[in-house]
Amino acid sequence: MRFLHTADWHIGKKLHGYDLLEEQVDAFQQILAIAKTEQVDAIVVAGDLYDRSVPSVEAIEVFNRMIVEMNLEEQFPVLAISGNHDSSTRLETGGPWFVQSNFHLNTRLDQAFEPVEMNNTQFFLLPYFEPISARLYFENDEIRTIEQAMKEVVSAMEKQFKPDMAHVLVSHFFVAGSEKSDSETKLMVGGLDTVPLTLLNSFDYVALGHLHGKNALQAENARYSGSPLKFSLSEMNQKKGVWLVDTDASDTTFTFKEITPLRDVMQIEGSFKELTAQAFYTSIDRENYLQIQLTDRAVIPNMMNQLRQIYPRVIGVERLFGREERQKKSETKKSIKTLAPTELVDQFFSEVTGEALTQQQQTWIKDNLAEIHQTERGK
Question: Which CATH class is domain 2-258?
Answer without folding.
Answer: alpha beta
